[in-house]
Amino acid sequence: MSLRAFVAAPAAQAILAQGAAWGLTLGAAALGALPAGHPWLFAATQGVAAALIARWMGAPPWWWAIHAVFAPLLLAASTWHLAPAWYLGGFVLLALFYWSSYRTQVPLYLSNAATVAAVAELVPPDRASAVLDLGSGIGSLIRPLARQRPMARCVGIEMAPGSLWLGRLLARGLPNLSQRRADFWGESWRDYDLVYAFLSPVPMARIGEKAAAELGPQAVLISNSFPIPNRKPDFVLDLPDRRRTRLYGYRFGRPRQSGQ
Ligand SMILES: C[S@@+](CC[C@H](N)C(=O)[O-])C[C@H]1O[C@@H](n2cnc3c(N)ncnc32)[C@H](O)[C@@H]1O
């Protein structure tokens, strides 16, 4: 990763904003601009400084809020006198489930039952087919789908070990579902009739390119909530659920050639 790409990454920007705000606030305290013995004032000043720096760096508004509360929450947590192992445990748990989200910008959130029902409608109940879930999380889509469509070969690819282990545990005994730990960019999507993605806006242009290169003429790509930029979906499904889920359907229509 180049230095420019590193500095543009949200996680790196967050570290830079926090670091700069700590530096400024400590500097202000050392120069006497902040009265000594007022930790809450110090934390609030650091929070405001970090939020302003993040805003100046072009971070989206929800990052400003995270920066604003980070130091005050740190101070509050220090008054709870929890053993350090709790913090380590919390960090490990989050890391197991969010793994490379800081890099992929795709966090874990779960497909709901309405989405499973809509996707199941696209999978034939009476003949063999193959379904791939890109980033299958804990299996919220691919597991019930495998149950509802026993003739379909269902595959989930997931990078985060915690999600994968939980997904496998919940799917014990389902013969038509396999979930494996891999990076879906490094896997072939050619052998699938339906590819499902519930990711984020960030990877969608690349998803479109890979799908166009690899999916067969009958295959369909379903993207939950995030359209492929600059490509009109072949169909859109608006679901009657609380979050008003929108599924974008794409067919790429390019015949697969042998050896490709
Ligand atoms: C929003 S969740 C969706 C989970 C599941 N598909 C569902 O609908 O309930 C996206 C998942 O994709 C995983 N992910 C992101 N990029 C990935 C990659 N390149 N390879 C494998 N998994 C990835 C994340 O770890 C996360 O669990």
Notable characteristics:
260 residues; alpha/beta; Rossmann fold; 2 domains; seven-stranded mixed sheet; 10 helices; elongated; binds S-adenosylmethionine
Tell me the strand order in the biggest sheet: 3-2-1-4-5-7-6
SS class? alpha/beta
Percent helix? 40-55%
Series of secondary-structure elements, N-terminal to C-terminal: HHHHHHHEHEHEEHEEE
CATH superfamily of the largest domain: Vaccinia Virus protein VP39
Write the layout of secondary structure elements.
Elements: H1 3-8, H2 10-30, H3 39-56, H4 61-78, H5 84-98, H6 101-104, H7 113-120, E1 129-134, H8 142-148, E2 152-158, H9 161-170, E3 177-181, E4 194-197, H10 204-214, E5 220-224, E6 235-238, E7 246-250
Parallel strand pairs: 1-2, 1-4, 2-3, 4-5
Antiparallel strand pairs: 5-7, 6-7
Helix pairs in contact: 2-3, 3-4, 7-8
The structure holds S-adenosylmethionine.
Structure in words:
There is one protein chain. With 260 residues, this protein is α/β, with parallel strands linked by helices. The protein is built from ten helices and seven strands. The chain is elongated. It starts with a helix and ends in a 10-residue tail after the last strand. The structure holds S-adenosylmethionine. S-adenosylmethionine binds next to strand 2.
